[in-house]
Amino acid sequence: MRLIPTGRWAARFLTLLCLLLGALPALAQDDLDGLLPVTEAYKLSADASTPGVVKLHWTIAPDYYLYRGRMKFKAADGVTLGEAQLPDGEKHHDEYLGDVETYHHGVDATVPYTVAAGTTTLKLSVQYQGCHEVAPKICYPPHTEQLSLAIPAAGAASAGTGDSLGAALGKLGSTRGGGDGAALPAEQAFHLEALAKDRQHLLLRWTMPKGYYLYRDQTALKLKDAGLSLAKPEWPAGVEHEDAHFGKTTVFFDQVELPVAIQGDTGGLRTVNLEASFQGCQDGGICYPLMTRALAIDLGSAAPTSGTAAEPAPEMPPAHEESLGLALALLFALAGGLILNFMPCVLPVLSIKVVSVIESGESHARRRSHALAYTAGVLVSFVVLGLVVIAVAKAWGAQLQYAPVVAALALIMLTAGLWLSGVVQFGGSLGNVGSSLANQQGWRGDFFVGVLAVVVASPCTGPLMGPALGYAFAAPAAQALLVFFTLGLGLALPFLAIGFVPALARLLPRPGAWMETLKQVLAFPMYLSAAWLAWVLANQRGADAVGVLLVAAVWLAATLWWFEKSRWKSTAVRAWVLVPALLTVLSLYTLARLPVPASGDKAAQVAENTVAFTPARLAELRKAGTPVFVDMTADWCVTCKANEHAVLNTDSFRDLLRKTGAVYMKGDWTNEDPAITAFLQEYHSPGVPLYVVFPKDGGHGQRLPTVLTSSLVEDALTKAAGTPVATNP
Fold it and tell me: Measuring CA to CA, which residue among 129, 145, 123 is closest to residue 48?
């Protein structure tokens, strides 16, 4: 059967067939007019005369090209390949493979390798793929060639030749004494160990056999633990070495010890996780590919340094408390979303949306359309927020730590209140507040009402969703997104039910003048929300910040006034609204430049047996055998304030502290605090509140629910002061 491509369609078909079905038998090249066999189109030659490196060269025929990304190299047992070094190719967009790099005329590749003792033959599998770029245009299936090359002796290279093994993977060392036969495996040639001198200082030690050396400047160290980093290493004096690729550099023979300091608070950690990348050579022989080792360094036995934590690492909650099944997490998410509908920030959004549907007198089909569009806005917003939270690993609710965000939300609440009071009109739904997108009719307006509902609900989400969001932060990304999706479903469920169940719609009251009154009454929760956010801002940035917020509110009022006054004017007249709007935004910008005020007022409020949270202070109390009740809170946390009013700021709680000898330790997360953030992450908490009771015997801390009761706290502190808290096996 002759396979002759005829025209553009045939060429495209064969190209797609070869690329996607490369595992099929190769096409018979002699049967295709004008095409070379694959081994003649791409003539491959190999050179293994240099120890530790194999050099490959392709001679590419005219009108043919090779794909850079389709080259693969695989060695037989006894040989370990490093990363192949390939030059940059010509960049272009391939019709089927997307953005690619290709080679014309010829290309060289360098592949470093190491061999096990006794290996004398380098068996290498080389796969590549290319295309013919003129008619008939066709791409070959991936082609594999098997190479069998003799491995030269380790010291075969003449002294001072300086042959390169690749830019970042290894070079031949100059002859300093000659290699001692076949190269050792990397683990034996470069033995790395690490220990903690104290909780803030590590000591790394490389040990090499005779005839091997380590490059100083090719060594990179980093800690994998959040919030920690390493200071600049304090290298000892090494040996000056003239390297063929790096030039004049410093190396170490036999053994080298490297002290390095940890930057950051290690008070809450039992171990730190170090990743070390380094490179070395056999003197006069081969150089090794870049090596990477991961080490877990125990801090538990290290002596405490001055000013650092010395306590045992905070224990994780027992397994039955910290691991929440997916089904239960979704149930919490659904319930939390439903409760959000009754929060002061969200209730006006839902109420006014329901009122607008009732007033419209539309059919059941139209109500279902409203409900679906609103639900889509809520769900999409929660999924996007979930992706952002997972990507940046930020605790939920932490957006209120930033003064411009708090001020912007306060102005949104003020705008919503003014609209509900009838001072300014945006259209038929609350979704138009602050966004022209929500001013559109039909599904777009409903969709952006759902978006606005999520925006105003976000400050309330963390306290209600502690268990479910805690699961989301510890779960795989897909399950975490499912939790966020279910939270959105709970928020949208009431309006969704009204749209789809006619019986529920019939239970709603008849439209009338009362709706306008209700609309005006609902303005006051919005004003209260704005006042609460102004109070939060005062605690974050002081009186100056409140002054800036008031100025921004005046400019916002001017913006809304001109927006309303120029409604029926020309476009040029209406455009002047941008001036006060810009001044409003500039006012918010200045908030970011205000410093965090001294917390003297808050320090004065610390009562008896109450101390500010620091990891070092917690360590001292635990080491002294003192029970500790840790309260992580924030001024913007509604649940925190409710718990303080009902339980923690009561005479009975203070009496309980005296009876048990416990210390009440309080961490204020109103502003960003890395130490508190690390503590929250240690206990897989998505935000505040977080309550942990540490027993006097130094055992596991007991994490309490986000909603406290007096009996719950009394039971936990009694156990901490007397009966030891059960530990995990």
Answer: 123
Residue pair 425/353 in contact (Cβ under 8 Å)? The answer is no
- The answer to which of 153-162, 256-265, 372-381, 487-496 has the lowest mean pLDDT is 153-162
Helices and strands in the chain, H and E counts:
23, 28
Q: Within a 13 Å sphere around the CA of 51, how many CA atoms are in the beta-carbon half?
A: 27
- Cβ neighbour number for residue 563 with a 10 Å cutoff: 17
Question: Which of these ranges, 80-89, 310-319, 593-602, has the smallest mean pLDDT?
Answer: 310-319
| Mean pLDDT of the region 563-568 | 79
Contact between 457 and 346 under an 8 Å Cβ cutoff? The reply is yes
| Spatial separation of the C-alpha atoms in residues 148 and 146, rounded to whole Å | 7
683 SS3 class: coil
The CB density around residue 229, as the number of other CB atoms within 10 Å, is 12
CB atoms within 10 A of CB 273: 14
Which is more confidently placed, 25 or 137?
A: 137
Q: Are 606 and 300 in contact (CB under 8 A)?
A: no
Q: What is the pLDDT of residues 265-312, one digit of tens each?
A: 887 777 888 999 998 888 776 777 788 888 888 776 454 333 333 334
Identify the H or E element spanning 295: strand 291-298
Burial class (CB in 10 A: 0-12, 13-18, 19+), 393: exposed
- How far CA 231 is from CA of 117, 192, 264, 648, in Å, comes to 39, 19, 10, 41
**CB neighbourhood size of 149 (10 A):** 14
Q: Which of 113, 125, 126, 129 is nearest to 68 (CA)?
A: 129
At residue 507, the pLDDT reads: 65
Neighbours of 303 (CB within 10 A): 10
For the segment 180-205, what is each residue's pLDDT rounded down to a tens digit?
Answer: 456 677 878 888 888 887 788 888 98
Q: For residue 90, which of 82, 80, 100 has the smallest C-alpha distance?
A: 100
Q: Is the pLDDT of residue 629 over 90?
A: yes
Distance CA 534, CA 551 (A): 12
Q: What is the pTM of this model?
A: 0.39
Task: For residues 522 and 525, give the distance between their C-alpha atoms in angstroms, rounded to a whole number.
Answer: 6
Query: Could you give the C-alpha distances from 379 to 176, 340, 341, 440, 575, in angstroms and in order?
Result: 67, 14, 15, 20, 34
Residue 151 pLDDT grade (very low, low, confident, very high; cuts 50, 70, 90): confident
**Phi, psi (degrees; rounded to nearest 5) at 661:** 70, 20
Q: State how far the Cα of 24 lies from the Cα of 27, in Å rounded to an integer.
A: 9
Nearest to 676 by CA among 694, 659, 688: 688
DSSP state of 489: H
- List, in sequence order, the alpha helices (H) in 393-465: 403-420, 443-464
**Any idea which residue has 């978006």 for tokens?**
451
Dihedral angle over CA of 532, 537, 543, 546, nearest 10? -70
How far out from the chain centre does Cα 61 lie? Answer: 47
- Strand, helix or coil at 178? coil
Pairing state of beta strands 79-81 and 72-75? Answer: unpaired
DSSP 285: S
Tens digit of pLDDT for each residue in 382-394? Answer: 888 778 766 654 4
List domains and CATH numbers for the chain: 7-150 (2.60.40.1250), 186-298 (2.60.40.1250), 321-591 (no CATH), 600-721 (3.40.30.10)
How far apart are alpha carbons 549 and 590 in whole angstroms?
A: 10
**Closest C-alpha among 493, 519, 527 to residue 355:** 519
With 60 as the cut, is the pLDDT of residue 28 above it?
no
Q: What is the H or E stretch that residue 369 is in?
A: helix 364-392
Answer yes or no: are the C-beta atoms of 593 and 628 closer than 8 Å: no
Check whether 600 has a pLDDT greater than 80: no
- Other beta carbons less than 10 A from residue 256's beta carbon: 19
Q: How far apart are CA 626 and CA 611, in angstroms?
A: 13
pLDDT value at residue 103 = 93
